[in-house]
Each structure stands twice: as C-alpha cells, then as structure tokens.
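Quick start: read one record
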Amino acid sequence: MEGLFGFVLAGLALAGSPGPATLSLAATGAAFGARGGLVYAAGITSGMAFVIAITASGMVGVLMALPGVAPVVTVAAAGYFLYLAYRIATAPPLSEASERDEQPSFAAGALLSLVNPKGYAAMAALFSGFVLLREPPMRWRRRRC
C-alpha cells in the first residue's frame, strides 16, 4: 500500500487534465454559471466512477493474466494524450453564441464520461502503472468446526 499516495495523486492529475469532460464543464460554467454546472458536474463524476469501475475490473484481470500488456497500455494511453493535446492546441477559438441553449443535464454529463476515450485511456494508464498489492489478496477460508 506504499504506492497509494502516488496512485491518488496521479488519479487526480489525470482526472483533471484537459479533455472533453473537463473542457465541456468549463464551458458550461462560463455559459450558465457555477450553480448551473453543478448537476452536469455530478453527472460527469458519476459517469467517471463507472468508467473507473469498468477499467479497473477489466485491467486487473488482463494484467494478472498477461503482465506484458501493461507497457502496451501505457504507451497507447500516452499516444492518445499526445493526440488529444494536439487537437486542443490546434482547435479554433470558441465563437460567441447568439442564443443560449438549455443547461446540460446530469444524464448528458454521465453519458459524456461513458463515451470519453480519454477517461478510459487515463484510467488504463493509472491502473497499469501502479501496484498497490504486491501479493494476491488472501482468499476467504472456511472455518473448520
């Protein structure tokens, strides 16, 4: 468990790094104010929790079965992050909207997290890059009477 602090720190950095969810949340806050974005932020957070569960459960199984996969996942995630950084850096500036649409909903935030490849790439890099338990967890044993 000595790697827990680094794991949490890396998780916070990856979750807060620029991506579709982070940028859309910033745009929602700019368009509708901080209160207007709270429901959307809750949806993004809930969706991300589901992405974490999906990634963690799948990655743990794959990495336990094929330990050589971890470097491949890390390189793929790094490549995606470079691609994402390029797309953000070369994106045209946002123009002023003549009309304001409806505030994004909780469901819109949750769905954005579920289809966001950056979330999966970030969590795959996170779970493949840290070892929190050096030994397999103890299995429950039946008590003999």
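The two ends are 34 Å apart (CA to CA).
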